[in-house]
Structure formats: structure tokens, C-alpha cells
Amino acid sequence: MNRDVNAGTGGGASAGAGAGRSAGASAGMSAEGGAGRSAGASAGMSAKAGEDSGAGPSASVIEKIRQHKVVAILRGLHADDALRVTEALLAGGITLVEIPFNQRGAAPGHDAPAVIRLLKERFGGSLCIGAGTALTAGQVDLAAAAGAEFILSPGTAAAVITRTKEHGLVSVPGAATASEMAEAYRCGADIVKLFPAGDLGIGYMKAVLAPLNHIPVMAVGGVDDSNLQEWLQAGACSVGIGARLVREVWVKERRYDELTALAAQYVSRAVQGGKTGS
After folding, report:
1. How far apart are CA 154 and CA 125, in angstroms?
2. For residues 216 and 43, is the Cβ–Cβ distance under 8 A?
3. What 3-state DSSP class applies to 172?
4. Rounded to an integer, what distance in angstroms lies between the CA atom of residue 110 and that of residue 91?
5. 104 φ/ψ angles, rounded to the nearest 5 degrees
6. Ramachandran assignment for 105, one of left (phi > 0), alpha (psi -120 to 50 degrees), beta (any other)
7. Which residue from 173, 205, 252, 263 has the highest number of Cβ atoms inside 10 Å of its Cβ?
8. How far is CA 164 from CA 84, 97, 115, 128, 149, in A?
9. Please, are residues 78 and 109 in contact by the beta-carbon 8 Å criterion?
10. Res 107: pLDDT
């Protein structure tokens, strides 16, 4: 490109003085600037195309979240219960689960990495597993070693997002305001978790997504089978559902058939809502 500038400048100089040199230099710089911008844009578009076309495992996980939409949150379950609940969820068509960390510490068999590892070994590629409530880079390390494929947090911490991306995992930090959402995305989030979505409201999310429509959002908190379609139609690309799906009494009483039926209902409504949602 410098050769073009020199040629243009030289052409202007040989043609004459003053205005001739100026015109030649301007033409050369314009040619270089245009080529540079074109090359830069091409490189940027190529990189973006690589991300969007499924380059790397994280891209396929993002696609699974966008396609299946419903993330079941299995909070506080012993590994044995988590196994049975997951079997029931899979039977109902739910293939995305979140296993949250307990920040107060967990009894043996309850800790997130142990549960993630067990589910990964049992269900393999039929299940996409995320680690939730990850507040430190160390917890991201533990989740990654156990086999988690995406990392969720209730808030935004740059260190957690950075470590998640270093492991090649999908980052889903939480946010409640437009500023927090923009900052999370700037730090590298793949999807931003709107939390607590139910308290903020569907109208709030629509208002925030008007200027931030480039940010994929997962609505978590207050989403159930009665409003799931509304959240998706309002712009959420996915939803996270805990106790309104994985009901404590059903787990205690081992009413897995009812859990499977409810999971199937969520999946059906997600399909319908997703036809007009993101």
C-alpha cells in the first residue's frame, strides 16, 4: 500500500508543482486509506464470520442455547437426585441444565463440580451443562475441569468473563441495567443474563433491548410456563428456570413423571414463542 502512495505522490510531483503534488498525494492517500479500510473490514468480517459459522466449541454451545432456549436450573441437589431429575428433564425434551455453585459451601456430593462431572459422564453429548453462580476465576477453573460448557453468574465480573473465555467456554454473566448489560458484553459475554427478570418485567427488557438489540439476552428469575412465550417474543433468546420447573416437592417425592410432563410443556411453549422471538 505504501508503494501506491509513493507512486501517486511521485506522479503528482512529475506532473508539476504545488497543486499537482497535492492532488497526487491526496489520490495516493485516498487509495491507501480505501484499501486499508477495505482490508480491515474484510478481516473483521472474516473473524466475525468465523465466530458465527460455528468455529470452535463455544459457537456450537451458543447455538444449542439459542435453539433449545430453556435452561433448567438444578440448585442444591445431591448428585443422585440430580441424575434422576436430569433423566426426567431429558425425557421431556430439555437438554440444557445449570448446576450452580453454593457460595456458603456444599456438603459432599452436592458441590457443583462433582455433579457436573457425574452428569457429563452419564449423559455425554445429549446434555449441555452450565455452571451457575460462578463468582471467581477459580470457580470457573473448577467448572471447566469438571466438563461445564457455559458459565453463568448473577452479576458481571470481568475476571470471571475473561477466565471463561480463556477456557473456550460460553460466558453468561448477569446484569440488571442497560449499563451493566453493555459492560458485560464489552468484557466478552456471549449472552447476558437479565436477572432478576421477573422483578424487572418484560416491558423493562423490551425498553432496554431497543438500543441494545445487538446483545443476546437470557431471562432468568420469574419465568414460568405461563409467561415463557412472552419473554421470548419480547426479545429474549433463552430463559433460565429453577424452582418453577424443578419443584422441590416432586424431587423429594420422586414424582419424576410429573417433572417430565412439565418439561415437555416448557419445551412446547418455547418452540411456539421462539417462532417470533430471538
Report:
1. 26
2. no
3. strand
4. 23
5. -90, 0
6. left
7. 173
8. 28, 18, 19, 16, 10
9. yes
10. 65
Q: How many CA atoms lie within 13 A of 232 on its CB side?
A: 27
Q: What cell numbers appear for 163 in the block?
A: 477466565
Region for residue 199 given its phi and psi (left: phi exceeds 0; alpha: psi -120 to 50; beta: otherwise): alpha
CA dihedral 248, 251, 256, 260 (to 10 degrees): 40
Q: What is the CATH number of domain 56-274?
A: 3.20.20.70
Give residue 191's Cα distance to chain centre: 3
Domain ranges of the chain: 2-51, 56-274
Grid cell, residue 149, equals 460448557
The verdict on whether 87 is a catalytic residue reads no
**CA separation for the pair 209, 122 (Å, rounded):** 38
Q: What pLDDT, on a 0 to 100 scale, did the predictor assign at position 108?
A: 61
**Alpha carbon separation from 117 to 96, 112, 138, 183 (Å, rounded):** 15, 9, 17, 32
User: Of these residues, 69, 165, 180, 193, which one is catalytic?
Assistant: 193
The dihedral sign for the CA sequence 13, 19, 22, 28: negative
Q: What is the pTM of this model?
A: 0.79
At residue 275, the pLDDT reads 65
In the prediction, which pLDDT does 192 show? 98
Q: What average pLDDT does this structure show over 102-129?
A: 89
Point out the catalytic residue in the list 98, 149, 165, 180. 98
Q: Are 218 and 193 in contact (CB under 8 A)?
A: yes
Whether 193 is catalytic: yes
